[in-house]
Structure prediction request, 327 residues.
Amino acid sequence: MLNRISLRQMEYFVATAKHGSIATASAQIHISSPSISAAIAHIEAELGVQLFVRYPSKGLALTTIGTQVMQECESLLERASSLYNIAATSNGIIQGPLRVGCFQSLAPMIAPEVIYGFSRAFEKVELQMVEGNQRELMAHLSNIDIDVAITYDLQLSEGVEFEALARLPLHVLVSELHPLAQEPAVTLQELAELPMVLLDLPVSREYFLSVFAKEGLEPRIAARSRSEDVVRSMVANGLGYSLFNVRPRSNLSLDGKRFVRVRLAGQHRPMLLGLATYQAMEQSRLTKVFMQRCRAYISDQYIPGMSASSFFDPHIVTSSDDDTPPR
Prediction:
């Protein structure tokens, strides 16, 4: 059961319990209130308990079971922290250069908490992050320009080893005014008749088009862009639908228009999010410690900066902005 609750979710819950407020915890640990609220909701759903009671004048108070859960979470977090301490003291302090590649569309969500959070935890680490598309990251790995990459499992270069951490199912993105916006699910056959806005990145482009090709279909591409933000804005402005795997928490495009995520009916290969390394390059202790952090912070149940996927797990609940943990 507990392997479905991440260490980061426990940290958010414990911080809220100690401060008695999601808003206060948010300010103290520099994590958004919706992220904290979603973490608490997930723990409650997984354990089937209520952790907090809300009092209008006093904020949040732990229930009896909530107090017990907090104590266990604190114990688990302390033991997890000791793993890093062992690594730091066994052969000296964790320090030195670390070169991390990150798929460019993942960077806004993954980089602050996972990548730069690591350098904040180990101040003597000299971190360099390299963003790029899949082909660029594969080249960086093969040329030993980076130590590890957080990316997808698509078109991996020869000699690259991949460890999957989370699945990202395909979904359809449409404007809130689109005829499909109110549908519970949509088929590829329905989409093939409608204009599409394509995310035109190397490898990603081939992946999205292959989804149609496997069904003997060809999409009607009305517009395309190499920028995820531009694609979302065009979708939100009604130029067409798009396919995505990444799920940013915001449902607004940069120009303030709203879009909606709709489930894609049928069985389709999800993108696998994980760690890519070059087999011929021996991983340093620093790289191994960083990879262990990634395993603790990224899973099917939680990905930093992304909304939960109700397409895979009916237990996952969406979040609200106030101090009331969603039920």
User: Anything to note?
Assistant: Residues 64-90 form the longest helix (27 residues). The longest strand covers residues 160-168. The two ends are 19 Å apart (CA to CA). The chain is about 40% helix and 20% strand.
